[in-house]
Each structure stands twice: as structure tokens, then as C-alpha cells.
């Protein structure tokens, strides 16, 4: 954990689908939560083939992550965007679709019904 946190500036702000995490203490809490929730087990990150794209003080990495949520396999694309200053990451952003992941991982009638009650209106007329 300390090695991972050493790459961040003290006042870094990480934007993620789960919220905004300011400073190393909150980033530590977020990383700990990501890696220890138990319900979601991330199995791998797969590079999409474009690698890391760098321009000036920013880098972008596109990936596909595979995970298991209570026995259900989830496969989702995502993007990490990093902004650097003085050799430290100051503004990391992670972007992925939590709702799509929930749809893939929903088991049982009630869970599927709840997830679809959010998604169906958003996708009306699409199919």
C-alpha cells in the first residue's frame, strides 16, 4: 500500500464512479475498499491493445476488467486517466460503467428487477 501511495501527491484527488477521494488518507481508504470488499473479486485487467497513451503531463490507459460478483462473471471496459505534476499523480480518474456491471452480476428475480428498473427507462427506444 505504501509503495502504491508513494506515486500520489499528498493533495491528489481521485475521481471514481464511487465518488471523489481527496488526499492520501482517502485514497488509501478507497484502494483498501476496492481490494478487500470480498463481494467483488477482480481477476484481471486486460490491455485493449492501445497501451498507455501519454501527452505532456497526462496518460490514458484503456482496459477490460474481469471480476466475479457473488459467483457471476462480469466483463467491463474501463479507462484510467492520470495527470501528473512534479513526478507525482495529482488527478487520477477511473471511468467504468457500474450499472452495466450490476446488470451482469445481478442474480435472482428481485436484484434483476431493481437493476432493470433503472436501466430500462435509460435504454427506452434503443432496441
Which descriptors would you attach to this protein?
127 residues, five-stranded antiparallel beta sheet, Nuclear Transport Factor 2, Chain: A, alpha+beta
Describe this structure in words.
The protein is α+β, with helices and mostly antiparallel strands and 127 residues long. The chain has one domain (2-121): Nuclear Transport Factor 2, Chain: A. Helices cover 31% and strands 44% of the residues. The protein is built from four helices and seven strands, in the order αββαβββββαα. Strands 3, 4, 5, 6 and 7 form a five-stranded antiparallel sheet that branches. The chain has a two-stranded antiparallel sheet with strand order 1-2. The radius of gyration is 17 Å and the shape is globular. The N and C termini lie far apart (45 Å). The relative contact order is 0.16. The mean pLDDT is 88.
TL;DR of this structure?
The chain has helices at residues 2-5, 23-36, 98-105, 109-122, and strands spanning 13-16, 19-22, 40-55, 58-69, 72-85, 88-89, 93-96. It is an alpha+beta fold. The chain has a single domain (2-121), classed as Nuclear Transport Factor 2, Chain: A (Roll), CATH 3.10.450.
Helix content: 25-40%
CATH class reads Alpha Beta
The biggest beta sheet is recorded as: 5 strands, antiparallel
Oligomer: single chain
Estimate what percentage of residues fall within beta strands: 35-45%
Number of spatially distinct domains: 1
Overall geometry: globular
Annotated CATH architecture: Roll
The string of secondary-structure elements, in order, is HEEHEEEEEHH
How many helices in DSSP terms?
Answer: 4
End-to-end gap: 45 Å
> What's the rounded overall pLDDT mean?
88
The chain-level structural class is: alpha+beta
CATH fold-level assignment: Nuclear Transport Factor 2, Chain: A
Q: Compute the number of strand runs.
A: 7
Roughly how many Å is the radius of gyration? 17 Å
Low-confidence stretches: none
